[in-house]
Design brief:
nine-stranded mixed sheet; 15-stranded mixed sheet; about 40% strand; mainly beta; 2 domains
Length: about 500
């Protein structure tokens, strides 16, 4: 199943982790965190601060998270070194090695004049990005608790609420982060409680909560929708019994056929293989960007639940979704009109993590999509190229990084497809929700909408699944960018399909 697990791993945070056992003799104390997923200890992390040359500080840390993926145990490990000054928002230099079993990526970040440069080898493939220092307000490696401590401590000195652009290491991109400062409260750490200031912030459609104590140290950070928490601890690795976390439960919803309804077979995964499917849904989403076209459009119609059954809490999508395959057959024609271009200007421009103006993206787009190609044929060409050129990995990256490294998750593939289309003047945007994968589970997913013209409207394609001429009736549109709230009692019942 192709789903955005990276939203809750690399972005939804902190694969926090395993410290080496033999550190009792070290003169410099280290800060440790216990990683909990659904209450179980799945990892342990540490970082240590030491003086460096010229009044700078060096922060060294390591992270390991144990996971179950497709029924087997895998290990995520991050080793890193940060060089930072007392007033720095952005480190002077940063190096990290991040591995998933035998696959390794390396990151080298540094100041070059007035720019902050990231160079990487993502599973051996070079990648590079550069950002003006004046345009970024923070730097985050979502595997590194020390970076969150620096980021959040800086926010406590600023206005409330706050917003800034943060460079995210593994995404090779700068993304918006916004949040607010709360009051002081007692918060649980491993082995007791401490008094700390609460900070809430959001990025990539998810809400994070963190607590900073009076000494400016991170006490706890959590992602409520994924039942994830990283808590400060004094315990050592040898005192812990680690349980690999089965995160698939946080990213999927079981598909339950109603009484007498036959479960869908392989035909359900083919565009046009199922003419119509009807779902009774009760799903809670995390923070997400929505508009009025998401839940009811050319692909599906939402019939809200009877209001007499009682009020629906904010964040819940409750009702019946009637979903049809969304096909391009016979619908291609002239390119979008001038009126379309004005009305849809935002979907023709580059944006955070969709770098359609990057020279190498523009060159690739010209190679893949010849001049004069109609919009939906352009969409087919772009999606086929992305599907055939990239390897799926639970790593969320920008369009440019996906193009350079040729790996990424479903949202990464969607971004690259959109960047190629926008570079050729075709309006395109992200849409997502849940989609049928292997077995009988609907997994969190993102795909693409392409504007085919006033008479055609938005047509959906899925480069991750290789559905380049339309999508099947088992894609349920829920958000522009979002997540499933894995802490909720979500339910999807298949009431019938034809």
């Amino acid at each position: 199943m192709r789903r955005s697990i990276a939203v809750a791993l690399t972005l939804a945070l902190l694969a926090l982790a395993v410290a080496p056992a033999a550190r009792a003799e070290d003169p410099t104390p280290e800060t440790r965190f216990l990683l909990r997923v659904r209450g179980d200890a799945a990892g342990f992390g540490w970082y240590r601060i030491t003086p460096a040359e010229d009044g700078l500080t060096r922060i060294e840390g390591e992270t390991v998270l144990k996971l179950l993926q497709d029924g087997r145990e895998t290990v995520l490990r991050s080793r890193r070194s940060t060089l930072v000054g007392p007033e720095d928002r952005i480190p002077r230099a940063y190096r990290a090695t991040i591995s998933r079993d035998a696959d390794t990526s390396e990151y080298d970040c540094r100041h070059e004049g007035e720019a902050f440069v990231l160079e990487a080898k993502i599973r051996g493939t070079p990648a590079r990005a550069s950002f003006p220092l004046a345009s970024i307000g923070a730097f985050l490696d979502y595997n590194a608790p020390e970076h969150f401590e620096i980021f959040l401590r800086g926010r406590l000195r600023e206005s409330r609420p706050f917003q800034c652009s943060a460079v995210v290491t593994e995404m090779m991109s700068a993304l918006p982060v916004q949040g607010r400062i709360g009051g002081e409260e007692e918060v649980e750490v491993d082995g007791g409680t401490v008094r700390a200031t609460r900070v809430e912030f959001s990025a990539l459609g998810m809400l994070y909560r963190a607590w900073i104590d009076s000494a400016g140290r991170l006490a706890r950070i959590e992602v409520p929708s994924q039942k994830f928490a990283a808590v400060r601890t004094e315990r050592r690795l040898e005192e812990l019994e680690l349980t690999p976390a089965d995160l698939i439960r946080s990213f999927t919803v079981p598909l339950q056929p109603a009484g007498g309804v036959k479960p869908p077979g392989p035909a359900a995964r083919r565009p046009g293989g199922v003419r119509e499917a009807r779902f009774r849904v009760r799903v809670r989403t995390g923070e997400n960007r929505m508009d009025g076209e998401v839940l009811s459009n050319l692909h599906q119609t939402l019939t809200p639940a009877d209001p007499t059954t009682g009020p629906v809490e904010p964040g819940w999508i409750v009702g019946t979704l009637t979903v049809h395959p969304n096909l391009r057959a016979g619908r291609d024609g002239a390119r979008p009109t001038a009126d379309d271009a004005v009305r849809l200007a935002e979907f023709l421009l580059p944006e955070d993590a969709i770098e359609s103006d990057a020279p190498e993206i523009r060159a690739r787009a010209a190679e893949v999509i010849p001049d004069g190609t109609p919009p939906l044929e352009a969409a087919r060409r772009a999606a086929d190229w992305v599907h055939g050129s990239m390897s799926y990995e639970t790593q969320l990256v920008s369009a440019l990084a996906a193009h350079q490294g040729r790996v990424g998750d479903c949202l990464s593939m969607a971004r690259l497809t959109i960047a190629l289309l926008r570079a050729r003047g075709v309006p395109a945007r992200v849409i997502g929700g849940i989609a049928l994968g292997g077995g009988r589970r609907l997994g969190q997913h993102h795909w693409v909408e392409v504007w085919g013209g006033t008479w055609c409207g938005w047509i959906q394609i899925d480069p991750t699944y290789g559905q380049s001429e339309g999508i099947d009736a088992f894609h349920l549109d829920l958000w522009r960018q979002g997540t499933i709230d894995g802490s909720a009692e979500n339910e999807v019942v298949l009431e019938g399909w034809e």
